Each structure stands twice: as C-alpha cells, then as structure tokens.
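Issue: copy button drops trailing tokens. Both records pasted manually instead:
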Amino acid sequence: MLVIRIWNYFRGYVIIKIEGLTLEKFINLAISKNIILWDIIRIDYTTLKAKVSVAGFKELRDVVQKVGCRVSVVEKKGYPFFINKFKYRKMLALGSVISISLVIFFTSFIWRIDIVGNERIKDEEITNVLLSMNVKEGIRKSAAKKLDISNGLLLNIQDLSFANVEIRGTKMIIEVKERALSQVDIKEDTPCNIVASKKAVIEKIVVKNGKALVEKGDVVKEGQVLITGIVKDENLASPLFVHSEGIVFARTKYTEIIEEPIIKFIDEETGKTFTTREIVIGSKRIQLMNGEIPFENYVEEKKVKEIGDLGIIKLPIITIQHIYKEVERTKIKQDVDALKQITAVQGTQQLMEKIPKESNVISKDVRYSIEDNLLITEIIVEVSEDIGVKEKIN
C-alpha cells in the first residue's frame, strides 16, 4: 500500500467532489472504464469526495456527460503540481534546490551536545573526555560512532556506571549514570578518608584510625568527609596521611510515592483501525493519505522507517506509519479504603528493596492525600545504618 501511495504522489492526483443524484451509477461507470477512484467519502446523499489520477480525471468527462453529475476539483496533489509551480519561476526553483541542499548538508552535522544524568561529575570533565575523542559540536554524524563514544566515557571516567549516546536530528544526547558511593576495598597501607554515602543525621561515630570531622546531631551530605586520613599536628613538619578506619551510624530516610487515580478509564480495542502515512524529508512533511480520524477514542501506534540510508551517505528521509486503533472507554470508580491498603503494600515492597539489609528500621509512616482525583500514598521509612565509605586520598 505504501508503494502505491508513493507512486500516486509522484504521478500526481486530484481530489474531486461529485454532486448529483446518480452517484452509484457514476462510480460503476468509472470502474467499467478502468478509472480508479480511491478514498471515497460520502459527504451527504448527493455529494461524494474521492481521489483520482490526473489521467483518470481527464477520462471522467465521458462519464460525467452520461450520468449527468457535476465534478469539481477540490485540490491538486502530487509531485507534478509541486514542480509546476516552479516552471516559470526559475530563480525560486533554484533557491529551493539550494535551500534543500543546504538543509541536507547542515543536518548531517551535530550542532549541539546535551549531557544529562550527572550530579557529582561536572559537565566539563565529560566534555574534556569527548574532546579527547574528537567529539565536539560541528562533528559529522557519520564520524560520531555511538558505541565508541559510550565505551570511551566508561573507560575514562571511573565514576560512571552507564553511558548511552543518542542522536536526534542535529543534537547529540549523552545520558549517563553515576556509580553509587559504596564501600570499596582499599589496601591498609593506602591513605584514605571515610565519606558519607548519602545525606543523613549522625547518631554515633566510632573512630579506629584517623580524625573525626563530624559529631552526633550533625547533618551531612553525600560525599562529605566524616573521618579524615589527613592528620595535622603542631609537632609534625608536614601532615600525616593514614588509612582511616571507623564506623559512622546515622539516621536516613527512604521515601516512596505511589499515585493512583480514584476514577479511571479502561480502554479496550474494538479491532477497528485507521492508517495514515507520511514522508519526512528534513523538516518538511508530505502526507500520503488525508482524512479525519473516524474514531472518538483511540490509541496511536507509530512505525518509523529510515529510507534515506544509501550506504555512502545518509539522507534525512524517513517514512512514518500512523495506526489509530479504536477503543471503547469504560469508566470505573475504585474503593478508596481498599486502594489505600493496596498502594501502601505496593509502596512498602518497593521501598524495602532500596533499604540495605544490614540497616535497622526505626520508624515507618504512611501518609495519604487526595488531589484532582488522585490518591497519593507516601511511605516514609527511617532507618539507622552505617553510611561511611572509604575514598582514596589523591
């Protein structure tokens, strides 16, 4: 079907309106003369809309005379009509060709690089690694090997646990995830600090080696030094670097929020579908099928296919198939008390997966609120745990 649509576009067709009392006779006579009409829409008892090729439209004259209907052109579509506009406008045509060429040329480069997901690691550090791999704004898309870039970031930045590179148009999006601060094995002869793995309130600190920088009741943030391995003394000419040892117990909070609509709709597909297609060339979109979506309630599914990959060069040409599936929407109201129990259990289960097994649960609080038809369940669990992790002193 897509091939036929593309063929009709390049061959050219017209959208016509047929008015009269013998519409069925008109269609039957057109079919008998091998004149193909498609996308026929009945507007009312005496009016139809349809599409027909340019050659078929010319042959409709005999049919119109025989059945006594009136045919008028609503719209001309297709490549021949598009080109005909430039027949007597050579400079405009030349400008259009140059513009399209420039669009294709400039869209083959990356003009913006966005870095998302980093908190502790600065953008400059990631940018410097990218520059060492010759990845920067203005690079050709063909030279930007996504797998090589993500691997290079993971190899050069140890605090990254994940890196993904995606190219959207002329923009490169680099999504990263940082490694969680966790206990690492550091040799006993290696100087190190003990830092906080998360935000917390200090309960108790036991120092075996090094010097405590915090005390009970202090609020600390992630990465803050709790026990330092740099010991300074008036009797020492220079600081002494030691391997810190100790345990830091602190109160931390874990929160999980579950949102569930009280009145919700359940969609069930009826099996009826409506499909449209379009070709996207750069920023220009060419609709290969017109018509309103005949459903009041529907879900949309998109199928995107690149057809501009010619091997040597990749043109920004894609086809998009839009599939609209009719659904019947059923409205149901959930019992609020039962919903509270369900969301509380669900949230607690999700929360317990995040809490370290060796920690001690101090308290648990469940809060409910209703906003705009949403039951919001907030589960707060307070625990006592060792938040200290070792970090080398460079």
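Record 2 (pasted manually too):
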Amino acid sequence: MTSALVRGERMARQRLVGEPFGDLVSCVGTLGAVQFQEFEDSLWSLARRTKDRPSREAIATEIAEGRLVRHHVLRPTWHVVRVEDLGWMLDLTADRIRAQSRPQLRSEGLLDDRDRLVDLVGEVVDAADAPLTRKEIGEALREKGVDLRGQALGHVTFSAELDKVVTTGARRGNWDTFVPYASRIPATDLDHDEALVRLATMYLAGHAPATAHDFAWWAGLTVTDAKRAFALAEVDEIAPVSSDGTTFVLSLFDELVIAYQDRSAYEVPIASGGTIDVWGGNLALLDGVVAATWRRKKSQRKAGPLLLELTPVRPLSSADRDRIDADAAAFIDHLDTPVDLQWKDAP
C-alpha cells in the first residue's frame, strides 16, 4: 500500500472521513481506547468522529456519568474507554504499568508503603459524600496522619486506579475527581488470551493497517503477546481510501497519530532520540502529512481571547493555509470560547 492509502484507511476506520460514528459509545468502542491526556483537546478528537459533533459538555457528561470513563489503562497515561471494557483491559495491562511505575514510587519513598496508601485512598473516597479531587484526597489523608503532596500524591492515586480502587467521576473545573471504582465499573471475567485477542481485534478495527509492533506500543504489551494476538485476530476489509485532499487540525495525542509506534507515514517531526519534536504543540495535517504545528496561548491583552498559533513546518501556499484555517475554525467553534487564529510566521 502507498502511504496515502495507509493513512486513508486509518482515517476511514476512525471515521475522520466518510460517515461518522452514530454516537460516542460506538466511537470509543470501535477505537477500543482513546488517549485522553489533554482533556479539552481530546474532547474534539471524539466530537469530530461522531454524528452531529456533540458538545464538550455532552462528551464530558458521558465520560463522567455514562458508559464512558477516563482512567489510566494500557499505558501510564489517561485513556477513555467504555465502562464495560475497563476491567478486563486493566487485568491485561495493569501489571506492566505497575512495573513501569516502581522507579517513581521508589524515588518518592513510597514503594514499600504503596499498598497501605492505596487502601487509605480507597477508605477516603468510599467515605466521601461526593467525588473528591486529588487535592481533597490529600487533605483527608493528612487528617489520618499521612502527608502526601504533589507528585507523591499523584503516584498513589494513579496506583489506586491500577488496583481498581478508584476511578474518575465528573470533572470539577479543570480538576479530575475520584469515586469508588466499584460504583461505576462492572466486574468482568476474561482469561488472559481471550482479553488479548479481543483487544487486538478492537485495535485493528479502529486502527488498521498496523503492525504487531504498533499494537504492542498502543496497548503496552510485549511484542510476543502482540504477535500472538495478531495471529488470531480478524478484521473486516474496507474499500481503498486515500488521504489526499484531507485536512485535520489534531491534538498531538489524537489516535490517528499517537496509536502507532511508526509514525513515518505522517512525516511527524522527529527529534534526536526518536521522540516527536512538537511536545507541547499539536499537529495540522494536509493530505495526511504534517504541514504545521499549533498551540493555544493566553492573550497578551488582559481579558483578551485565547490565541491559536500555527507554525508551518514546510513552505505552504495560501491555499494550503486556507484549508488549515477552515479546519481550525471548526475546532474553535467546538471550543465555544473566543479564540483568535494566527500564523506564527505571518508578517
């Protein structure tokens, strides 16, 4: 397959082109898991793939109270998944995430006391009359004689997610809240191999074409397990689609790009060491290839609008910029707040 056809099939499976998903649950269910590291930008990732582009408030409510939940799973970062999928996904991936988190726990002096602290977090959240922010959990722990702040507190609540003690509730402003895991998430019982094949099947349905190495990266699995799952997973073929003519202003963590170990098809800027060279920024794609990066900035004027600043990574014609401006305008409209659009290299 040409790179344009690889990109096009991925776009079609993720409904960035063609008919959008009928609702948020079918969107997330097909993709399997949607990285949700940056909450506001990730709302747009779901909206643009879903019929009638649901509002930020509608998506946030579905995540806080409905069939979707935001949780650390697959890799040591936030994802949104269906509530019925979270349990078996944690069973499959939490051990490897715990192993990856041990150095941080050790550096904070928490490793030997980890399990006791997780239990205390559970007691605090269970006893609360309403969902608690991480700061409020820390305050309640101090009343019990345990002083955890900053990263130390974050590591412990993260561990409590992995252990199925807490999960997230409704956001309070820009802050996550936590509720008892069992109050939102149903129990599941899948053996390891069944869960492995189910996850591979979901991944291919929402991300093919992809390699076992891509899947191992996305799911946080060993390459050996990924290859074994790929040998058993099946995915329906779809008609060829090209990425030519497409324009997308996307979060850096959008599934179209972040879900693959090999991102060369998008010509993503790569720094020395192999990391994406736009951390803190996001991506604008023309014909499926990175054309610019973008970031939101506070206005230099008091009470002024936010600024969406675009920086080209290669020479762009005025027609190219017009295409990107049009897609950026759709994103700005979804934000439902005053935003000015500006090209960083503009005179």
